[in-house]
Amino acid sequence: MIVSSRRISLPSPDVTARLATALAPKLGPGDAILLEGPIGSGKTHFARALIQARLSLDHAPHEDVPSPTFTLVQTYDTGKVEIWHADLYRLTHPDEVEELGLSQAFEQAICLVEWPDRLGNLVPDNALTLAFSQGDKSDERWLTVTGSPDWREKLDPVLAEIVHEHPS
Ligand SMILES: Nc1ncnc2c1ncn2[C@@H]1O[C@H](COP(=O)(O)OP(=O)(O)OP(=O)(O)O)[C@@H](O)[C@H]1O
Ligand SMILES: [Mg+2]
Fold it and tell me: What is the CA(39)–ligand 1 centre distance, in A?
């Protein structure tokens, strides 16, 4: 599979949320976003903004989006599409991925997965990987975006706008 990477600066939580909001309308059933990065790097912050933006776009009621730290999975139904938000940090064996119903969700829902390394060989094909890391300043994060040309086509205009407004 051909994949390519690019790296951009996210200078504040608001910019991260704006990126998530801009990506929300471009997703559909079967799209998976793997959210990588250490504790506190912004994975849930990104997922929350994306889910709330998509609920709003699909005219669904606003919902709180808690971190799925303990539940492992939280699901949302916008009326048009299901969104699965998973945090697999506490997963002890990839067999649990099946038990959680994630394999099926990868085919039918929009899936946002924190700590995707726990998936082992169940990582879905053609996922978009967003890897967050700490920047120089406390509120800055670096984001490395890795995905297929299909993803690049969806993301490039969104990333270009952010880079234009916040050159690093
Ligand atoms: N540029 C930024 N982008 C995203 N979040 C940021 C940024 N700057 C500061 N933050 C803050 O960093 C924190 C990120 O917390 P978050 O829960 O999203 O981390 P996480 O990566 O999901 O961690 P965990 O692995 O524990 O689930 C939030 O409090 C957020 O406001
Ligand atoms: Mg989190």
Answer: 8
